[in-house]
Structures are given as structure tokens and as C-alpha cells.
Design a protein that fits this description.
Elements (H helix, E strand, L loop, with lengths): L6 H4 L16 H6 L5 H9 L17 E9 L9 E4 L10 E4 L3 E10 L3 E13 L2 E14 L6 E4 L3 E2 L4 H4 L3 E8 L5 E12 L4
Parallel strand pairs: 3-10
Antiparallel strand pairs: 1-2, 1-4, 4-7, 4-8, 5-6, 5-9, 9-10
Length: about 200
């Protein structure tokens, strides 16, 4: 019988086959690459990648901040929202209640404040009674920093489990947002339970 796995193993970044992580560069370094290519220079400028843009990188502001995580479903009663405001820095007071057997998806909002962030992904591990029952890893993308732009990512729809066994107990979730170097931008815990109907 093997011992329990290291929890950090659940959050190890899995690289896409054939994708090679390159050395990180500053916005200024990216702006100077292939500077003689006019069309590429125009494209980079449209993304805000211009020489001298690196000054914000040393502002002390975190590179990426996660603002909200929301569970969205067309079956939710009018006016009901299941949203975690991660700006509050407070732990979730009580578990979300999710109706069993319905389609829902996760939506996350975040900002990339400065620099070039490559391969940002959301990883989620769900446990019940200490046993991992689900794991999800979703690529959010690569971004050039712009503190005025809120990025929104809607994950693919899923179906919540159903049945008496699924409704017993509370599901504990640990969520993390990392980049392809494994740098952790956000790490938080929350919980949910399943019920026959929305509460």
C-alpha cells in the first residue's frame, strides 16, 4: 500500500508535448526583438509591447492578480450569483450549494499588471473526505501587462454529480493560478456541497 501523495504533486505544471519554455524576457527585450521587421513592430505596438514599457515592472505591484471566481449556470434562479470576491482576502464563510445534475461552468477574472506573462493557467483540485475526486487544469493564456484591462475566462461547461452519495459531505477545493515557470500568482481554498435544488 502506497502512502499519500504529496499535495504539491497535484499542482505540478504539466507542459504541453512539443512546447518548450523559453527564457523570460522583459517587455523592453521583446520590443527590441526583430526591430527591423515593420509589420511585426506594428503588431507588437498594438499589444503595448514598445521600448521603454518595462518601467512598470518594478512598481511593486504583483504581476497577476485574480479578482473573482464565479460558478455560472443557466439553471440558477434569477438574481442568484455564486461569486467569490478574491479582493476581499477573506476565507469563504460557508460552502456554495450547487444543484445536482446541472450544467455549469467556472468563470474567472484577473488582471496582468505588468510584464509579459506566458502560459498562465488555473489548476483546481477537489477533495472529499481527504480523497482527490477531481482535478482540472485550464490554460488562461499569455498576456502583456495592462492594469486597465480585466481579463475574463469562461471554462468549458461541466455537469455536477448527482445521487445520494454525491450529496453526502462537503467538497473541499484548492485553486491556484500559475505561469509556465510554476510561479504562483494566487492560491486559495473554498468548498461546495451538492443538493437536490438551489438554496
Amino acid at each position: 500500500m502506497s502512502g499519500p501523495s504529496n499535495e504539491e504533486d497535484d499542482f505540478a505544471v504539466q507542459n504541453t508535448p512539443g512546447y518548450k519554455i523559453t527564457q523570460k524576457k522583459t517587455v523592453d527585450e521583446y520590443a527590441k526583438l526583430d526591430a527591423e521587421d515593420e509589420s511585426l513592430a506594428r503588431w507588437k505596438a498594438s499589444l503595448g509591447i514598445v521600448p521603454g514599457a518595462a518601467s512598470a515592472e518594478n512598481s511593486g505591484q504583483p504581476q497577476v492578480t485574480v479578482h473573482t471566481l464565479e460558478l455560472v449556470s443557466p439553471t440558477l434562479p434569477a438574481g442568484k450569483k455564486l461569486t467569490m470576491n478574491l479582493d476581499d482576502k477573506k476565507p469563504q464563510e460557508k460552502p456554495f450549494t450547487i444543484k445536482e445534475g446541472i450544467e455549469y461552468n467556472v468563470r474567472i477574472t484577473f488582471k496582468v499588471h505588468h510584464g509579459i506573462s506566458t502560459g498562465i493557467r488555473y489548476i483546481q483540485v477537489v477533495k472529499r473526505a481527504g480523497i482527490t475526486v477531481d482535478k482540472m487544469s485550464v490554460m488562461l493564456g499569455s498576456f502583456n501587462g495592462n492594469p486597465n484591462v480585466v481579463q475574463t475566462k469562461n471554462f468549458d461547461p461541466e455537469e455536477s454529480p448527482s445521487g445520494m452519495l454525491a450529496r453526502s459531505g462537503t467538497y473541499h477545493v484548492r485553486s491556484r493560478v500559475v505561469d509556465d515557470d510554476g510561479q504562483v500568482f494566487a492560491d486559495w481554498e473554498w468548498s461546495f456541497k451538492l443538493a437536490k435544488d438551489w438554496e
